[in-house]
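Sequence design from tokenized structure. All designs in this work follow the same two-part layout: the structure record, then the generated sequence. An example of the structure record is given first.
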């Protein structure tokens, strides 16, 4: 399956939660629901999630941003992906917790490309361990309030 067929690419407007749930499937949507609620609980009143349409190639994604990018959730067919971009100072902090991350997440972090605006880490959230790693990585991006 190519990436385009994995993404929600209908340009008619932001997808409803029902459509997201149906598209992703129960397990992947469970992680989507859990991460959105976790962000709302840990960062109350900070982020207003925004659906972005990246065209027919990238489809819909849910971005969390205040003054700078926090993370972007990408609902895919049967999967939930997250993109977190780490600047130089944040990368140094990730190195401090690197040993606490699961081996697959460490490998993906090490393999992620660093661009002029930071290291772009793209993960598939498909287990509770990866979810916990994502929580730790998001804490580096911004200290939780709640």
């Amino acid at each position: 399956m190519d990436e385009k067929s994995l993404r929600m690419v209908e340009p008619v407007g932001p997808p409803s939660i029902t459509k997201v749930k149906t598209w992703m499937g129960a397990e992947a949507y469970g992680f989507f629901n859990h991460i959105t609620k976790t962000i709302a609980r840990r960062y109350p009143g900070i982020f207003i999630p925004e659906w972005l349409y990246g065209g027919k190639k990238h489809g819909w994604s849910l971005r969390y941003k205040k003054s700078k990018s926090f993370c972007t959730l990408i609902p895919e067919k049967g999967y939930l992906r997250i993109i977190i971009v780490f600047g130089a100072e944040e990368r140094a902090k990730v190195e401090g917790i690197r040993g606490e991350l699961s081996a697959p997440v460490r490998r993906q972090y090490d393999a992620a490309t660093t661009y002029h605006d930071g290291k772009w880490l793209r993960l598939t959230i498909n287990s509770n361990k990866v979810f916990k790693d994502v929580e730790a990585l998001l804490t580096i991006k911004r200290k939780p309030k709640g």
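The first strand starts at residue 50 and ends at 53. We note this feature because it recurs in several other targets discussed in the main text.
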